[in-house]
Amino acid sequence: MKRVVFDSWALVALLEKEEPAATQVQSLLYQAAANEIECLFSLISLGEIYYVVGRRHGKSAADETLAELSEAPFTLLAISQEAVIQAAAFKMVHPISYAGAFAISVAVQFEATLITGDPELGRLSHLVDIEFLHRN
User: Fold this and answer.
1) Whole domain around residue 18: which residue ranges?
2) Fewest beta carbons less than 10 Å away: which of 25, 73, 108, 115?
3) What pTM does this model have?
4) Helices marked H in 40-128
5) How many domains does the chain divide into?
6) Of 82, 69, 81, 84, which Cα lies nearest the Cα of 39?
């Protein structure tokens, strides 16, 4: 079964209805709900979404987002020490955010396609398969 990893960029695009990325992410979630693919998401990215939504729309909107995401058909991954070290190693070598380094780490660990529109991560396609999203 195909595995994909969402980074926070992808899910923020969905939550903010930023097209065409939102439609692409929604399509992947429909496939996950039909058990056609497996969608993964790290706890670190969840935290990033919480603060991004909270900063833009307030704490109650961030809390509502957490409730919405708890219903989404993806597996929320706890972070192991191995993933922390691997993410830090990626961050040492590449000019990417720490949360982005975790997304790359999870995709590598699970041999999954990273779903992102983050230009920083798009440059790392030599490390992992990346499906690059766009928003207008």
Assistant:
1) 2-132
2) 73
3) 0.93
4) 43-57, 59-70, 81-93, 98-109, 119-122
5) 1
6) 69
